[in-house]
Specification:
The chain has 318 residues and is mainly beta. The protein has a domain of 131 residues: Thrombin, subunit H (Beta Barrel), CATH 2.40.10. It is built from 3 helices and 15 strands. Strand 12 and strand 13 form a beta hairpin. The relative contact order is 0.27.
Length: 318
Amino acid sequence: MLLRLASLTSLTSLCLLSSLALAAPHDPNVDASTITPRDQITPVVGGTPVPQGKWRDVVLVVSQHSTCTGTLIAPDIVLTAGHCIESEPYEVWTDTVDYGTFQGDRIAVKWSRAYPDWEHRYDVGVIMLDHVARGAPRAIAPACAAKKGLHDGALLHLVGFGMVADTVESNTQLREVDLRVVDANCTSDEGCESSVAPHGEFLAGGDGRGSCFGDSGGPVFMPTEDGPALVGVVSRGIAVPGATCSDGGIYVRADKVVSWLQSVTGVDFDPSSCEVPADDGGEVTDEAGGCSTGGGGSLALGFGIVAVLFGRRRRATT
């Protein structure tokens, strides 16, 4: 859920939402580059701008009071964070690497839905677009590939529209950075969700690299024989007092929610052959489990913006 500014206490217990709000949600004449920060923001360190056409499946998800990042996993379907769905997205921008000088497509949201009880399980959500987007969708890494490739020390790739430095007033560019997995099981940090641990989430980043405000819902890619595949979804920061975005974050494993995505969208994500069973080793799976891939894609949305800082989602307390 979105938090009021007055209720923000620390970056470590809040989700990675955008620092933007929309002045004229459906007015294409508003200059999206006129963004002013309300407060200093913690940096996403180590990222570089994405060249046009490199990650056409990575999109901007626009809501009335915030923005997130998402991934096109089918021609008209976007995977993002569950807390991004709570802010009621209405449009998606696709095929752009800088929404301040936007060249791409704006596509209305037909409907959106968060994972059931996302606050305590998988912080993901799905968006159905009004029509198909240009660009090839991104495949979800099959469970067998994720199990093999997600180990401590593994190198992954983060892409998103999030903030880049505390000395920069705003960021409108799509950026990318390599991250190391520091806890593949997500059991070492208090911010890890116990109901899906181990293997439902993973920790990555740190040492000056990580996701931040605006990267929520964005993709983490892993290398496969068929090219980069979606293995993680940006969720939140680590629960260490005083930690910042550059100290690392918590990511939901995308392969764990494939069966839910299929049941909600009606899209049959083609199964991928596995050398080992997907649930081998006692890994937590979603309702159906299995080793599947999702078709991917890209989508776009546009909006006019004035800045209002929103924070990360608080961890539920018990």
